Amino acid sequence: MNMGLKHKLILTFLTVQIVLTTCAGYYQYKQQWPLLESQSVENHKNIARQLNNIISLSIEGNNYANIYLPTFVDRLKSMSSLIYLEVNGVSERSNKYQFAYHKALGETWRNYYPANYSASLDERIEKLSTALLNKNIDTVKVNFLLHRIEEEKLKYTQNLKQKKALSQLNLPFIKNTPAIQKNWMLTFSIPSTNNKGGNINFIFDVSPLKQLQDTLLRSLLLESFFTLSITSLLIILAIQWFIHPIEQLTKHLSHDIQAIDIDNIPAITTNNEIGDLARKFKVLVSNTSQHIRFIEELSTLDTLTNLLNRRHFDKIANDLLLRAKQHDLVFSLLFIDIDNFKKYNDNYGHNEGDVALQKVAATLLNTVNKDDDYCFRFGGEEFLVVLINKTHEQACKVAKSICTSIEDENIEHLFNQTHNKLTVSIGACSIIEHNDNVKIKDILKNADNALYKAKGSGKNKVCCTVI
Fold first, then answer.
1. Integer Cα distance of 333 and 321 in angstroms
2. What is the pLDDT of residue 1?
3. Beta strands of 30-144 (E only): which ranges?
4. Is 433 a catalytic residue?
5. Is 460 in the same domain as 320?
6. Can you tell me whether residue 18 is helix, strand or coil?
7. Would you state the torsion angle of the CA atoms of residues 50, 52, 56, 59, taken in this order, to the nearest 10 degrees?
């Protein structure tokens, strides 16, 4: 359904207003949301710093007893947003120190043991059990030590289970810099404060940020809705006042730009903004028409040789073939290639190569009939000539004339064997009886094959063929 100018303008302005309002809302969101994120990150980093002091002291003394204390575990549990805690450090005596905590498991556990730790505990238990058989030993002390080691053995077994259970929880990767994951988990790592260093990894639940985000988005959407409603009403009223002259101007300018009558543009004599717009349109249309004509001319010509370019050949070749068929005319195509032109460029330089191309192009233009024939630079050192309304014999004669004329230019080419001057080879293909199955690509292929034969027979030759 076609819309009138008024409806188009209303729709356009409303679309622009929606885009602007959306952009403004998005800008506000991008300003406010990072602040909320940053505030949440900073709050959780403060929690991490408080734990850092306690944990670093444990690392310093290689003290695992502290992490099992109920007061420490309860403190971790009281931090409702703390999901996971992982400690890696080196004690004052250069011992590796690691432990972890996960909210779902509700416990802390030692995360690292020496390779022979379990065997060492078993050996100590066996020694103390043997010592109890000695009647002269302090059994109270030995039983105490034995109880401690058995407890340590039990913890070791429990910690291995905790570690295995942790591997099934699919925790996110923790980087040094704070990052909020898609599942609303905040991950970051901070260095421990003990002398020999270490790091403490944290995962916090920041899902309350999702509620803040939803609240912020609802607020911005509501604000955008009211802004859009008011501005839309004002836009519609303004369009009603100015629509008539704009409709006239739009109707006049709706034609192809080169067909616009720039001397009779509506409202061009009025002394208001629309009149200014009409006058500026007149200048714009005039300049644009000139540029279009200039661009159209450039788009059809090869800038070096001023011949028609391959793009223009692809555009008009089928029309030329159709015209020849409709008038029952012979359609001939000459495929021209400069002999050993790469050697010419390599030895005489590309500047001289360009001059040679220009001379060949000039020779083509001077040889063919400018009213009926077309010359193209097909690419590099290749040229095409399309001949219409000439017999096959005449086309071959033109091809030979081109060969002779270029040879007569006496352009030195000592690297063109046997000739010592610039020459061309030509493959010619003519369609005498037109056939719907014969396409331009077929003619080009036949002409190219003929050119190949001309090259193979010593170059500076013409080879003609008929379809």
1. 10
2. 41
3. 82-90, 96-102, 107-110
4. no
5. yes
6. helix
7. 120
Tens of pLDDT, residue by residue over 149-174, are 888 888 888 888 877 877 777 788 88
Residues 299, 237: Cα–Cα separation, whole Å: 46
For residue 128, being part of any structural domain is answered with: no
Q: Which residue has the tokens 């309350």?
A: 208
Whichever domain contains 386, its CATH number is 3.30.70.270
Question: Which ranges of 253-340 does DSSP label H, i.e. alpha helix?
Answer: 273-300, 310-326
Closest alpha carbon to 186 in 392, 48, 4: 48
Residues 6+ apart with CB under 8 A from 132: 139, 142, 143, 146
- Report phi then psi at 113, rounded to 5: -135, 145
* Cα torsion 228, 233, 234, 236: sign: positive
Tokens at residue 436, please? 């719907």
What tokens appear for 275 in the block?
Answer: 């009149």
Neighbours of 410 (CB within 10 A): 10
Q: Which residue has the higher pLDDT, 201 or 389?
A: 201
Least confident of 97-106, 259-268, 333-342, 413-422: 259-268
Same-domain status, 265 and 318:
no
Residue 267 has pLDDT above 80, yes or no: no
CA distance 94 to 59: 10
CA distance 419 to 413: 8
Domain holding 54, by residue range, is: 5-104+169-211
> What is the pTM assigned to this prediction?
0.44
Determine which one of 150, 223, 381, 412 is catalytic: 381
- State the residue for tokens 């959780």: 44
Q: How far is CA 119 from CA 14, 29, 160, 161, 187, in A?
A: 78, 59, 15, 18, 36
What are residue 377's DSSP bridge partners?
Answer: 309, 383
